[in-house]
Specification:
Helix 7 packs across helix 8. This protein has a single domain, classed as Alpha-Beta Barrel (TIM Barrel). It has an eight-stranded parallel β-barrel, surrounded by six helices. With about 400 residues, it is an alpha/beta fold. The longest helix is centred in the middle third of the chain and has 18 residues. Helix content is about 40%, strand content about 20%. Strand 17, helix 12 and strand 18 form a beta-alpha-beta unit. It is an enzyme of class 3 (hydrolase).
Length: about 400
């Protein structure tokens, strides 16, 4: 289906971080934007007990997307929460993200297609196991469905699955152990078995070390679309991909569901220039008729003015990355105009987003008794992060240095 690139080592080029932009100048522009002015006015008016029309202005709710369900399994992380308590990209993980968290509108899942044409959910390019002390790995797309499903826990207690191991970015291979297990699954099983309340952010996975012909991409995407069209049954769907050609091609193959281009936004450099900046991402989306961008959050924090450029291009904006597990960073993105965040600490971020969403509702509610209204307003202000212009200036200066 795909051939190895001749210069695969040059595909991802380590690079020094770019020079910091003029954050002060960008902040001046950002702080004059309507969304920030409205947010600051709302907080100030609420603290003063003002019921002005400006304070009652509403912003669209921030969407929370569960990363690989209830969060990725970062096996080497010292933080137990980041290692994950549920196996990622499983029905159990997707349902755990959906349960009881109204702010979670979507779960993100990674889709690849097996050699015999079945879309399955798995993030890594290679799947590893150990047998008789020997570790072996196979490319997921080189497996038939039955062999793929033979890894890890099995649905039938009469079967023993192959032990699952995982290769880390530093080359180490560790036992893939989590507290709550579940079996590997297909895309169709996800449609049939996941709470219908949540939508699916279907990330189309392709290997950076492989090159793909249009014919090969078309075959993969048509296999995925067949399952989506037959089993979505009204569930909201978003397609996304780091592979520029795949993102543009799936937009050509269908116009029912929105397509987002995934980008590191310049935090990592690739041989394909379309992947190396937010500006290039905007160009690609506009040229291909895509609906949005999913950016590494650090790229947005380093270049806040890019939010306005993305919105001026009539594109939606979501972000991903470890900083999205910090409630204050998520709230800042809400003020900046970001539409959604992909997160690993689903419970913590969903509760934080629900809190400041509820706070906006309380601050806009009329007809409360004087005492009851004052108490609700006080609780709302306490639950919602609030930044003055000076504090915003400090944060925008500090965060780029932090992520550097």
């Amino acid at each position: 289906m795909a051939q190895l690139k001749a210069a695969r080592a040059a595909d991802v080029i380590p690079t020094a971080m770019p020079e910091l932009p003029d954050i002060a100048a960008e902040l001046d522009a950002l702080s004059s934007a309507p969304c920030v002015r409205a947010a600051e006015a709302e907080a100030a008016a609420a603290a003063a007990g003002d019921d002005s029309e400006g304070r009652r202005r509403r912003r669209a709710p921030l969407m929370v997307i569960g990363h690989r369900g209830k969060g990725m399994n970062a096996l080497a992380s010292p933080d137990a929460g980041m290692r994950g308590d549920v196996r990622e990209n499983t029905l159990r993980s997707f349902n755990a993200a959906a349960a009881g968290y109204p702010a979670v509108g979507y779960v993100e899942l990674d889709v690849q297609v097996t050699k015999d044409g079945c879309p399955v959910i798995f993030h890594d390019n290679f799947i590893y196991t150990e047998e008789n002390g020997d570790i072996s790995g196979k490319r997921v797309t080189d497996l038939h469905l039955d062999e793929f499903l033979s890894y890890g826990p099995q649905r039938s207690q009469e079967k023993a699955g192959k032990p699952l191991l995982r290769e880390l970015k530093d080359g180490r291979i560790l036992k893939w152990e989590v507290q709550a297990e579940d079996t590997l699954c297909t895309l169709q099983e996800a449609f049939d078995g996941v709470d219908r309340r949540v939508g699916f952010n279907v990330e189309l996975k392709f290997d950076d070390d492989l090159s793909y012909t249009e014919e090969a991409l078309t075959g993969v995407l048509q296999a995925i679309l067949k399952v989506v069209f037959e089993h979505a049954d009204g569930r909201p769907i978003i397609f996304s991909s780091f592979q520029p050609d795949a993102a543009q091609l799936i937009r050509k193959l269908q116009d029912k569901y929105p397509v987002y281009f995934l980008t590191n936004g310049g935090t990592q450099t690739y041989a394909d220039p379309r992947r190396n900046s937010l500006e290039e991402a905007i160009k690609l989306c506009v040229a291909g008729g895509l609906q949005g961008i999913v950016s590494e959050v650090r790229a947005i924090l380093r270049q806040p003015s890019a939010v306005a450029k993305i919105k001026d291009a009539k594109l939606s904006l979501m972000t991903y990355g470890q900083l999205n597990n910090v409630p204050e960073v998520v709230y800042m993105q809400h003020l900046m105009g970001v539409d959604g965040v992909i997160v690993d600490l689903v419970r913590e971020i969903a509760e934080a987003v629900s809190a400041f969403s509820a706070a906006r509702e309380v601050m806009g509610t009329e007809g409360c008794g004087e005492v009851e209204g004052s108490e609700k307003k006080a609780a709302a202000v306490a639950a919602t992060p609030s930044f003055s212009a000076r504090e915003m200036s400090f944060l925008f200066r500090f965060i780029p240095e932090l992520v550097q």
